[in-house]
C-alpha cells in the first residue's frame, strides 16, 4: 500500500510479539505458519481505539495501521523471501528466524517499488534479488529521493539495495525452493511493475498489493480498466487461496482469502470509475462500495481504509473527470 501522506490518520502502538530486533512495539513482528514450507511474517493493524494522536510517517500510514505481511517459501536450506517490510530491523528479524530454522541460502523477490515493501532490502544484499524490469527501473530512478527521505518523507531508506535480476513483461520465472515450485508472474495490477508469486502445487497466490482487505489502494487510476481486466485473467490461473501483503492476520493464519477477494476488488475499482462523474462522488462512503463484499465475507471493514478510500475517490475523480466512462466487461 502506498502511503497516505495527505491524509491525517491516527498513530499506532501495537506489540504483536516483541522481538529484540524490532525498533519498537509498533514494528514488532510475529511468524504465522501457513504450512510446512510457507510462513507469513506480520506486524501492525492496531485497533482504532488504541491509537493516540501524534505525528505520522509513511511506515504508519502505508503499512502499520493497515497491517503488513511478508512471506517466505522455505524448504531445506533455501528460502524465497517476498518483500522486506518497512525497515531493516524487521527484515533482519525475519532472516534471523529463518536462519534458526536452518535456512542458509536466501532469494528475495520484490512485489513492487512502493516503500513499505523494500525498506529492509539491505538485509539481503548478499542474495539474489528478483523484481520486474519495471521495478528495477523505477527504483533506480527514485533511488536518490528514497535514500534522502524525500520520496514519501522520512524515514529515509539508506542504503537502498536494488534488485539485481529483472523479469521482463510476459515472462514467468519458475524457481525450485527445495521441492517447492514457485512461479514469479509480472502483473500490471495496483502498480504497473507488480510481481506476484504463485505456488501451483498449493493452489495459492502470494498477491503483494494487487489485492487488499478492506479495499485496494489506487496508485494508478488511469489504468483501472486494464487492471480490472488483468485481475480477471489472474482469477483464472487455478489458485484457490490468496495471501495479500495487507490483510486480516486471522484470515492469513487460517490459510488465506478465497477468490471472492478478487471479485470484491474488481467490483470496487469498477464502481469507482463508473461513479466518478456523480455529483456527490467524493462524499460516497467506503461501505457504499464494499458493503456487499463485507456481507459475503470476502473482505472486512478496517478503519484506516476510510482514509485510503478518500484518497481513492480524490485520485479517481481527478483522473476520470474529463474522460468518458469505459464499458467494463462483466465476465468473471
Strand order of the largest sheet: 1-2-3-4-5-6-7
- Please give the count of helices: 8
Low-confidence stretches: 5-23
Overall structural domain count:
1
Taking Cα atoms only, what radius of gyration do you get, to the nearest Å?
Answer: 19 Å
CATH homology superfamily: Ribonuclease Z/Hydroxyacylglutathione hydrolase-like
Assembly state (oligomeric): single chain
Total beta strand runs: 12
Q: What composes the largest sheet?
A: 7 strands, mixed
Tell me, briefly, the overall form: globular
What is the structural class?
alpha/beta
| Overall CATH architecture | 4-Layer Sandwich
Provide the CATH topology: Metallo-beta-lactamase, Chain A
Order of helices and strands: EEHEEHEEHEEEEEHEHHHH
Beta percentage is 15-25%
Terminus-to-terminus distance: 25 Å
CATH class: Alpha Beta
Question: Roughly what is the average pLDDT, rounded to an integer?
Answer: 92
- The amount of helix comes to 25-40%
